Amino acid sequence: MDSNAVAPNCLSGVRVLDLSQFEAGPTCTEVLAQLGAEVVKVENPRGGEPGRILGTGPKPGDDAYYFMIYNANKKSVTANLKSPRGVALVKDMAAKADVFIENMAPGTIEKLGLGWDVLHALNPRLIYAQVKGFGTGSPYEHNLAFDMIAQAAGGNMAITGEVGGRPVRPGPTLGDTGTGMLMAISILAVLYQRNTTGKGRRLQVAMQDAQLNYTRGSFINYARTGEPQERGRAGFGPPVPPNDIFPCKPGGPNDWVYVFNSHNNPEHWRRLAKIIGRPELADDPDYLDRDKRLARADEVNEMMAAWTRQHTKHEVMNIIGGAGVPAGAVMDTGDLLAEKSFEERGIIQTQKHPNGDLRMPTFPVRFDGKPPEIKPSPLLGEHTTEVFGDWLGMSEGDVAGLKSDGVI
Amino acid sequence: MDSNAVAPNCLSGVRVLDLSQFEAGPTCTEVLAQLGAEVVKVENPRGGEPGRILGTGPKPGDDAYYFMIYNANKKSVTANLKSPRGVALVKDMAAKADVFIENMAPGTIEKLGLGWDVLHALNPRLIYAQVKGFGTGSPYEHNLAFDMIAQAAGGNMAITGEVGGRPVRPGPTLGDTGTGMLMAISILAVLYQRNTTGKGRRLQVAMQDAQLNYTRGSFINYARTGEPQERGRAGFGPPVPPNDIFPCKPGGPNDWVYVFNSHNNPEHWRRLAKIIGRPELADDPDYLDRDKRLARADEVNEMMAAWTRQHTKHEVMNIIGGAGVPAGAVMDTGDLLAEKSFEERGIIQTQKHPNGDLRMPTFPVRFDGKPPEIKPSPLLGEHTTEVFGDWLGMSEGDVAGLKSDGVI
Q1: Tens of pLDDT along A167-183?
Q2: Which of the four pLDDT bands, split at 50, 70 and 90, describes residue A2?
Q3: B270 and B195: one domain?
Q4: CA-angle at A197, arms to A192 and A200, nearest 5°
Q5: Which end of chain A is less enclosed by CB atoms within 10 A, N or C?
Q6: B293 and B300 in contact (C-beta within 8 Å)?
Q7: What confidence score (pLDDT) does residue B235 get?
Q8: pLDDT at residue B15 above 80?
Q9: pLDDT in the model for residue A300
Q10: Measuring CA to CA, which residue among B346, B354, B355 is closest to residue B374?
Q11: Which residues fall within 8 angstroms of residue A260, CB to CB, at 6 or more apart?
């Protein structure tokens, strides 16, 4: 194990039967796996889940980086769900599982005979989790959704973009990963509750609905003004300058820094005025007063930019952040991978996969000082013999028979 | 209780001692409260946590909507942490708590004498959770962070914006709420583990580190190309048109719709061509072939826009989504509040606060069909007598004495 990481083992002994695919469901089960659950993906024997071929990976024609990044620390078995014996296998596993999760198109899991009613009757302790695009009862209940659809219809895009510009999709995949995190919370809460009740529950989340929680700050503005939050504005009212993203040396696409000057703390302006070489303005009432500074926003922002353009984003972050004024360099993936402390602290780790390495972030919470260790994503069916033996008591011969019969 | 909501009671009996403020920590404990934990905020008797006065609320000079939205379902007690007896009170409560959480500036909680070492020695079962801007060992360890700083330095802004434009801050407060959700997951996992071990653990998360997990999709692109993901592009390579955000009638700032045409499914184009009144192009090889369509992206996108401009975003979402092609209207807060199914399904509820109502989203996962009920955020010190009596066995007279001594 990487000495900077830990096996948190919080969920040792918890068995998760994972029929999910792409990102929202797999994110949920990846967290559970990183926290110590035994997560078993059930995949189509012909190619596995579709995420395995989304883009390229370290080895041509084999598992994509996409799959590797969303399926670390899991196991994989195969089962042909078009065969009744394949479906029966999943039921046998569900009888032994603690958690079941799926994110198929609406109605599909029920048509397969693996709906809540069936599995709950089979195993009343089973926690049954479903992720869909839109909620049951929504006018869009039967519509498909991908990340960007949930981000549009869930309120994220309307509040993202430049002032006066068109709506912009947030880069982080909140529609998928954001939703998966909320389902992980819910599964863990019911797992805890089950210690007392002995019973599983049915959990359902819609990707659209999940976005409302992440953007609930925009409901504050609506309550205050009766109007939707204006794009490009957070907080209440126009930002008191300098409070924006400023250009840095040498002018590349990600050479920018965010500087946050609190409108409640005049010390911020005093420090910034000295840093940018305008100490005479630190206590000048025409600049120290926040309303007066706001009235000359363009002038103040240009002063700030004239200074930031002479420094790299890292210099600006060090100088301004070090002076106690919040500042954040716009770091891109290359910057994050180049910043050594992420690896030293175990936040970025190398997934050692048989097809090749992948440097990626782990679940970032530290347990007694260290974040969870990343283990490789599974090859298709890599754990079929192990899991069917362990969960169902099958022999290697039994598994070979299922294979030759086309069931797995 | 709202008949569309439920008290999930997953965490009945779990006591959370909450010294957090603003959004990241409070989001974590709001989820725990909505799932049934008893969350007790410990606040400064003079005004309470600073979020109480961030902007206005339903009653002039009293709790802000900001506070109401991030502190639903919690209790509040007061304790003056500048008084040794106030700190001793918090220790007494920590001895009776299951979870302790704080998100003060680096080093502050330790200076108060409430660090991990102290509270762990006092109550080995206590789960001790800390949220900071940057991680211990990061070059920015001592820097302050707000949401936008974490979103800049954690990789979110670099991948958000228009192609060729400057970086844009995602509107959803991933830096705060996103981080809080990951801490909630971790607390729940350790709560489960504690059933076996009987021991608490120390949990720490940095807002910057948390962003890396939400943006880990950008590490896929880096692994593939060795370059940071280009702004305004998700997926791998240029999007096959029509795959963008399109303008709708009547042309207001949020009258836009996202249409996602899968590059792997030629049916999407066939259906879209018919919908936009160009059925002759459905099987025309110059348009059906995705590479040829990509070569004439501007023409195809303008065809699509010419049609969307004649319809409202809701019409477009209904027509295109109904035809099995993913489409999402850009919904703003006003649209979300006007869409009745959110209230019918309990996803948006009315917080009935003594100062006035607030319509807001709840935690959106449904437990046996219904999401958690929203209860009001607490008035400052509203539960002091109740909680000190219940947790510490104090009489009303004891509490009155603490109050007259300025301890609470």
Answers
A1: 999 999 999 999 999 99
A2: low
A3: no
A4: 70
A5: N
A6: yes
A7: 67
A8: yes
A9: 97
A10: B346
A11: A243, A325, A326, A327, A328, B146, B148, B149
Are residues B303 and B393 both part of a single domain?
no
**Distance separating the N- and C-terminal Cα atoms of chain B:** 32
Structure tokens at B42: 């410990």
Residue A29, pLDDT above cutoff 70: yes
- Mean pLDDT along residues A200-229: 96
Judge whether B181 lies within some domain. Answer: yes
Stretch A220-228: mean pLDDT, rounded?
93
Is the torsion defined by CA of A219, A221, A227, A231 positive or negative?
A: negative
pLDDT of residue B1: 53
Catalytic residue among B18, B176, B244, B255: B176
Contact at CB, A219 and B9, closer than 8 angstroms: no
Beta bridge partners of A17: A40, A100
Q: Is B102 helix (H, G, I), strand (E, B) or coil?
A: strand
Contact by Cβ (8 Å): B392, B92: yes
Q: Is the pLDDT of residue A1 over 60?
A: no
- Phi then psi dihedrals of residue B160, to 5 deg: -120, 130
Of all residues in chain A, what percent are helix, strand and coil, respectively (each to 5)? 40, 15, 45
Residue A80 structure tokens: 């042909």
**CB B55 within 8 Å of CB B66:** yes
Task: Give the residue from A46, A122, A50, A39 showing the smallest Cα distance to A88.
Answer: A122
DSSP-assigned letter for residue B312: B
Domain range spanning residue A301? 244-336
The length of chain A is 408
- Residue B357 is a catalytic residue: no
DSSP element (H, E) containing A128: strand A127-132
Nearest beta carbon to residue B190 from set A10, A318, A330: A10
Asked if A43 contacts A408 with a C-beta cutoff of 8 angstroms, the reply is no
Q: Which of A18, A98, A176, A255 is catalytic?
A: A176
Q: β-pairing, A15-18 with A99-102?
A: parallel
Is A294 a member of any domain?
yes
- Supply the pLDDT for residue B264: 81
Tell me if A369 sits within 8 A of A345, measured CB to CB: no
pTM attached to this predicted model = 0.98
CA Rg value for chain A: 25
Q: d(Cα B407, Cα B93) in Å, to the nearest integer?
A: 14
Q: Where are the beta strands (DSSP E) in A60-158?
A: 75-78, 99-102, 127-132
Whether residues A262 and A164 share a domain: the answer is no
Answer yes or no: do A155 and B9 touch at CB < 8 A: no
Q: What DSSP string describes B224-274?
A: HHSSPPPTT--SSSSPPSS-EEEE-BT--TT-EEEE---TT-HHHHHHHHH
B48 plus B94 within the same structural domain: yes
Q: Distance (Å) from the C-alpha of residue A305 to the closest C-alpha of chain B?
A: 14
Count the domains in chain B.
2
Work out the angle at residue B167's Cα, subtended by the Cα atoms of residues B166 and B168, and round it to the nearest 5 degrees: 115
Q: Which position has the token pair 């502050």?
A: B108
B322 domain-assigned: yes
| Whether B165 and B45 share a structural domain | yes
CATH number of the domain within which A282 lies: 3.30.1540.10
Domain harbouring A123, CATH code: 3.40.50.10540
A191 in the same domain as A82 = yes
Residue B35 and residue B177 share a domain: yes
CB A326 within 8 A of CB B149: yes
Q: Which residues of B touch A167 (CB under 8 A)?
A: 245, 254, 256, 330
Q: Show which of B285, B308, B331 is a domain's final residue.
A: B331
Residue in chain A closest to B139 (alpha carbons) equals: A341
Q: Is the pLDDT of residue B41 over 60?
A: yes
